[in-house]
Specification:
The complex is a heterotrimer of chains A (about 220), B (about 50) and C (about 240). Chain A contains 9 helices and no strands. Chain A is mainly alpha-helical. In chain A, about 50% of the residues are buried. Chain B has one domain (about 5-50). Chain C has about 240 residues and is mostly helical. Chain C has helices at about 10-40, 55-85, 85-120, 125-145, 150-185, 200-240. In chain C, helix 1 runs antiparallel to helix 6 and helix 2 (about 55-85) runs parallel beside helix 6. The radius of gyration of chain C is 20 Å and the shape is globular. The chains are: A mainly alpha (about 220), B mainly alpha (about 50), C mainly alpha (about 240). Chains B and C meet through helix 1 of B and helix 1, helix 2, helix 3 and helix 6 of C.
């Protein structure tokens, strides 16, 4: 299992896609928003948590099709399927690798990008916590979507169409938690809901992803 | 025709749009059903004549 | 009359529905025309909402069917996963476009109704928002069906998507409820009119709902037949190519 994880991580780093591309995309989204809505700092600081969440979500989405695509093309996915490891474990490892290469850098970069958007001081800690809690769910849900579309030639657009509606609850609770904390409201409920969604998806969704992958490898 | 008052536009447009959508859905379903039925019959006939 | 599973046989399904279809369609037509004509011509205006209350005969039934269609797809998907009856998977496929159109009707009539009542075409009201999300789910489901060539693979994948999607759709419903209250401190715009409609509006509404349900059944019968035939044709063509 650890060997698979390190292999995936090494591949992601060597390909240069994992860390760099997602972060660069995130940065571009953050830079483009003021061009779109105007440079007024009051407005920007108000929508900052939402934009940062949305940017992280889209950056996450961007790298989803790479989770299985390379392994599918060179046939190593078939090898993995016959390995003694259960498919659920493989899927979970893949999701974890995706999170480490994409989700974690986004979480770490979010406070820096928050500066660009004039994020209020009270917002930094809640934003990082909410992203830290929420991005694993994004990776796990994304892995499910990637497993669904793995055999398709032009799966990229379909993948977004399938995954984005599934991201709605995570986005709502994540952004809501950051926003409430900034406004000084009680943020316990969204925090708990976000944590619940993440735990639930980590616990249950790998079974669905594994089932889907088995169908696709049939 | 009942007097719809100042909201006539809203009421009429929602009726027209909904009925159009339903009719379109029904028409598409029926057309596809017919086409498929004929096409299948043809293929089945071909399959029988060729043994 | 054997067990219900007899109807899982595609041939049996086609012969049975062929016999039922004219009746169901006729009833659907009668109920739909009856309910809508009754509602449109012979009900009074609401004292607050004026004539816009007449939109209820389209809005509520279509919204109801939008959710029920998804429920039916969920049940059909479960049956496919557990018992692997092809008719079940194909029925789910057949129902999806119908459900999507119902969702669209509910959204459109909702927007048209909202314009004079709330002064805006679109309000991020929890119910409207959930319906928009439901519509996205329908689109994704249909797109996945269309994208996969092999029938059984497509049936497997879409039914799993339907299960997972149902859980997330439910979650979104609660999330959206929570989210908007967070903004507006309790919804000031209640759409709960069906809870307090008077009898004059209630009976034509019931007829109209029955019409929508029958319409849905008729369409699902017809479209499932088409899907069964399409599947059979693909199988026959594949066999021809083998020769």
């Amino acid at each position: 299992m650890i060997a698979l994880l390190t292999r995936d991580l090494r591949l992601a780093v060597r390909a240069g896609g994992g860390f760099g591309l997602g972060l660069a995309f995130f940065l571009i989204v953050v830079v483009l928003v003021p061009f779109g809505v105007g440079p007024e700092s009051g407005l920007l600081s108000k929508i900052a948590p939402g934009i940062l969440w949305l940017g992280a979500l889209l950056a996450c989405l961007l790298s989803l099709d790479r989770i299985f695509a390379l392994d599918w093309e060179d046939g190593s996915l078939d090898l993995l399927a016959t390995a003694p490891l259960p498919m659920e474990a493989i899927v979970s490892i893949k999701a974890l690798a995706h999170w480490i290469t994409t989700g974690l850098p986004l979480v770490l970069a979010a406070p820096v990008f928050g500066l660009l958007l004039n994020l209020p001081d009270a917002g930094y800690v809640p934003l990082v916590i909410s992203l830290l809690l929420g991005t694993p769910a994004l990776s796990v849900i994304g892995t499910f979507g990637a497993a669904l579309t793995v055999g398709l030639k032009r799966g990229g657009l379909l993948l977004s169409l399938l995954v984005l509606p599934l991201y709605v609850p995570t986005l709502i609770f994540g952004a809501e938690m950051a926003r409430r904390s900034i406004e000084g409201l009680d943020a316990t409920t969204p925090l708990l809901m976000l944590a619940g969604i993440t735990c639930g998806t980590i616990a249950l969704l790998p079974f669905a992803s594994a089932a889907v992958l088995r169908v696709n490898l049939r | 025709m009942p007097d719809l008052g100042k909201y006539a536009e809203a009421v009429l447009s929602s009726y027209v749009l909904s009925i159009l959508l339903v009719v379109a859905l029904v028409a598409v379903s029926i057309r596809r059903a017919r086409k498929m039925k004929n096409a299948l019959e043809e293929v089945e006939k071909r399959g029988k004549s060729n043994g | 009359m054997g067990s219900i599973w007899e109807y899982a046989n595609p041939k049996k399904f086609i012969t049975t529905t062929d016999r039922l279809l004219p009746w169901v369609s006729a009833l659907a037509l009668v109920a739909l025309v009856g309910g809508l004509v009754w509602g449109f011509f012979f009900t009074p205006d609401d004292y607050k909402q004026g004539s816009t209350v007449k939109i209820i005969y389209l809005h509520v039934p279509s919204a109801l069917m939008a959710i029920n269609a998804w429920m039916m797809m969920l049940v059909a998907s479960l049956i496919w996963i557990v018992r692997r009856h092809h008719v079940s998977a194909l029925a789910a496929r057949a129902a999806a476009p119908v459900g999507a159109v119902m969702t669209l009707i509910a959204l459109i009539t909702g927007a048209i109704w909202g314009q004079p009542m709330w002064g805006t075409w679109w309000e991020w009201d929890p119910r409207l928002t959930s319906f928009l999300i439901l519509f996205l789910f329908y689109l994704g489901y249909m797109a996945l069906w269309a994208a996969i060539e092999d029938d059984d693979t497509a049936a497997d994948l879409t039914s799993i998507l339907c299960l997972v999607g149902s859980v997330f759709a439910l979650l979104s419903r609660y999330a959206v409820n929570f989210w908007n209250q967070g903004l507006h401190q309790g919804a000031s715009l209640s759409m709960d009119k069906e809870e307090n409609v008077a009898d004059v509006f209630y009976y034509p509404l019931l007829v109209s709902i029955a019409g929508f349900i029958l319409l849905f059944i008729a369409l699902v019968f017809l479209r499932t037949q088409t899907e069964i035939r399409a599947r059979r044709m693909r199988a026959l063509l594949a066999r021809e190519r083998m020769k």
